[in-house]
UniProtKB/TrEMBL annotation:
Keywords from the UniProt entry: DNA-binding, Repressor, Transcription, Transcription regulation
GO molecular function, one term: DNA binding
One Pfam family from the record: MerR_1
UniProt xrefs under PROSITE patterns: HTH_MERR_2 (PS50937)
Source domain of life: Bacteria
Occurrences of domain HTH merR-type (ranges): 8-76
Lineage of producing organism: Bacteria, Bacillati, Bacillota, Bacilli, Bacillales
Entries under SUPFAM superfamilies matching the protein: Putative DNA-binding domain
SMART domains per UniProt: HTH_MERR
Name of the protein in question: MerR HTH family regulatory protein
InterPro entries: DNA-bd_dom_put_sf, MerR-type_HTH_dom, MerR_fam
Length: 99
């Protein structure tokens, strides 16, 4: 796991890094745009990747997109990545390419 994906940052620090309010960050979680980890005590923990994603979400919201539109865009990107990985795997198998 990359250091960027380790969930170690508290919500207060994320708020400072992104300029978003705690309420905005929680709202994006409610809308299933961001998925923080939870400690046993229920404290949210974010990664550097989450911080980057929150900044991207905030920029898209400023551009006038709704959260539902952002979710659709993210789903298309994820679907495209999965498709690309499948094609790459098929090509590697067909040509017996090993990493």
């Amino acid at each position: 796991m990359s250091y960027k994906d380790q969930k170690v940052i508290g919500i207060g620090t994320v708020s400072e890094l992104t300029g978003l309010s705690l309420r905005q960050i929680r709202y994006y979680e409610e809308r299933k745009l961001i998925f923080p980890a939870r400690t046993e005590g229920g404290t949210r923990k974010y990664s550097f990747s989450d911080v980057e994603k929150l900044i991207d979400i905030a920029n898209k919201m400023e551009d006038g997109l709704q959260t539902s539109e952002i979710k659709k865009i993210e789903k298309r990107i994820k679907d495209r990545k999965v498709r690309d990985q499948m094609i790459r795997g098929q090509l590697n198998a067909a040509f017996r390419i090993r990493k």
